[in-house]
Amino acid sequence: MAANKLIAPHLWASWKPFGLGERKPHHFTEIARTFWQNRRHPLYAWRILTRGCCDGCALGTYGMHDWTMDGIHLCTIRLNLLQLNTMGAMPWERLTNDLDSLKQLSSPQLRQLGRLPYPMVRRRGENGFRRISWDEALDLIAERIRITRPDRLAFYLTSRGITNEVYYVAQKVARFLGTNNIDNAARVCHSPSTVALKQTLGVGASSVSYKDWIGTDLLILLGSDIANNQPVTTKYLYYAKKAGTRIVVINPYKEPGLTRYWVPSVPESAVMGTRLMDDFFQVSTGGDIAFLNGTLKYLIEQDWVNRDFIARHTVGWPELQAELAQEDWETLERYSGLPREEMRRFAELIHQARRGILIWSMGLTQHTFGVDNVKAVVNLALSQGWVGQEHCGVVPIRGHSGVQGGAEVGAVPDLLPGGASVNNPADVERFSQLWGFEVPEGSGLRAVQMIDAAYDGDLDVLYCSGGNFLEVLPDPDYVRQALERIPLRVHQDIFVTSQMLVDPADTVVLLPAQTRYEQPGGGTETSTERRIIFTPEIPGPRVGEARCEWEIFQEVAARAYPERRERIVFPNAQAIREEIARVMPLYAGIERLRKPGDQVQYGGRVLYRDGQFKTADGKAHFSVLRPPELNLPEGRFMLSTRRGKQFNSLIYGKKDTMSGAPRDSLFISAEDAAALGLRHGDRVLVRSDNGQSMECRIFIDEIKPRNVQAFWPECNVLLRRRVCDTAAGMPDYNALVEIVPLATPALAAASSASH
């Protein structure tokens, strides 16, 4: 898309050049800092930036360009991750003789040590790891897997730049070894989106492309802070605003980055900033279904729905109408946290728009009712016919570069590649024939269930590629105890993490992995807009004995069952892509991706163009939804988690530059702070309904009264374990809390000890 060259002063965020004195990220300073951090290998870093597909969020920029618009696309998230790809080996001897001091380091400090260079092992009772050969490591793992019942074996993969090829081989290896206990990082971010979209529309992915953001009438952001988590999208928002798009935000907290933003790669915005948000609806945490139901109720009352589209392409509309008719406004107001006038105002904005796109993230998904939250969004889109045409659609925006493809190629416990079900005997038999070995039937363990099984003594082997359960899951003490009970843990990663240092029940093995840019034969990722993008192997320095991840997985399986070796070993990455194309037609074209920038977008720019949805009956499905009851006890607050100056659980700063909040902040409204007699910066003890507590400092800002937020993963201690969305396995990342003012450090210590 060619950029609109005319300046637009009416969109400027400030008349102060570069936002001097404003609370905002200082992009150019941060860019300079990250280039300095990569000074040891500048040419290698440059080749990664210009030839590689970004391993940050799932926007899918190739090099420093994309397929949406002209110009440079580069964000600080990618630059911060760049150091992980270019840094040298860590002083691995510290793992053998300095483990106690390593355990005292924070996760950022552990990453700064450098890359993990060699395989290592630690057994029960040993004070440190010892270096071993790859043969010794692989034989040890293979032997333990061979004698382990498949139902007591589990695999988990996080994003960390993992390619589709690695995900595909890992899930095939799991099935080769007889288990469906395999899962990936999507379980704690967008699994409710995948489940809801597959059930209602047929495909668990965005229905439109980024191009469609620019030129739509209405962009609606729900439970999302894309300025913090997918910064490149602010450039899309900038051009959307210039094209006349209205941006609506539905959140408990008025995110500063969504209110206004300085886009560094657009001269006008870099200097004067851009006002993004046009309308803001401040719902209560968990109040989205009530708010969207109220909106749809009013749209129906005014007959502002697309009856032709509904009649021809959907089912379930009469049942939904009947449910909404009996939901009273008072209940919808109480559960949403907004008066009916606000629901009507939102309905009017929708009615005035011919085209609209709804975008959401973890503010909607990370609830026990996350699937229903997403279905409420789909209900609204279907009521207007905003699916199946350009500039209209639904977009679950992904925060990991690998999770969209990871789930689609089968690295999940209930689905095989292409969405085939492990609970469907015909699908299981088909893949058994394709692969030449018996594929297990029946859903395996989800990520959270793996930890529960470990805690209960029902897991013998946990094989993790990347990830850190200690940081991403609720109740870290519980997770630590679970990890300590697993006889064999395998941690395959590029750097040392805190979960590797958890004492072994019997044995812990560390395997050094290569990055996506080091993968022989290149690799692919699938972006939020369903674009499968190729990254070649990029020449540069290599670290120690680190190996390609898909090669490690297949070699473990081959050594476990050498008599069946030929059924699991691929000769090269191209052979993996060819098999993916053969067993899942959805990814047809992946086998032709060979050069830098090669890509194919499955489904084309817009899904469902022909009005034929990918459900069993070819129809889109409305969902009858009742809002969850949100009755806060007196003196309690609803806490939700937030992100800032980080990439998923990788933290890059002690302060969120977007909001200006330190990482120990508790976001609270001025109204609530005044009622508690608190001032900005005061120390408080936050007590959770799970019996745990943590100390925070008050950060007064524009958040919904009776709602508070704290930074994740630090506040995971406040979250309840074993509380999940039953349909998607998403942990609940919210908690009921009490706030206790702390007058002095001594009083704080006494209060904490008494609870």
UniProtKB/TrEMBL annotation:
Origin superkingdom: Bacteria
InterPro entries in alphabetical order: Asp_de-COase-like_dom_sf (IPR009010), MoPterin_dinucl-bd_dom (IPR006657), Mopterin_OxRdtase (IPR006656), Mopterin_OxRdtse_a_bac (IPR010046), Prok_molybdopt-oxidoreductase (IPR050123)
Transmembrane parts of this sequence: none
Keyword line: Iron, Iron-sulfur, Metal-binding
UniProt domain Molybdopterin dinucleotide-binding: residue ranges: 639-735
Iron-sulfur recorded as keyword: yes
GO cellular component assignments: membrane
Molecular function via GO: 4 iron, 4 sulfur cluster binding; formate dehydrogenase (NAD+) activity; molybdenum ion binding; molybdopterin cofactor binding
Pfam hit, one: Molydop_binding
Annotated ranges, domain Molybdopterin oxidoreductase: 115-558
PANTHER family listed in its UniProt record: PROTEIN YDEP, RESPIRATORY NITRATE REDUCTASE
Entry protein name: Formate dehydrogenase
UniProt source species: Thermogemmatispora tikiterensis
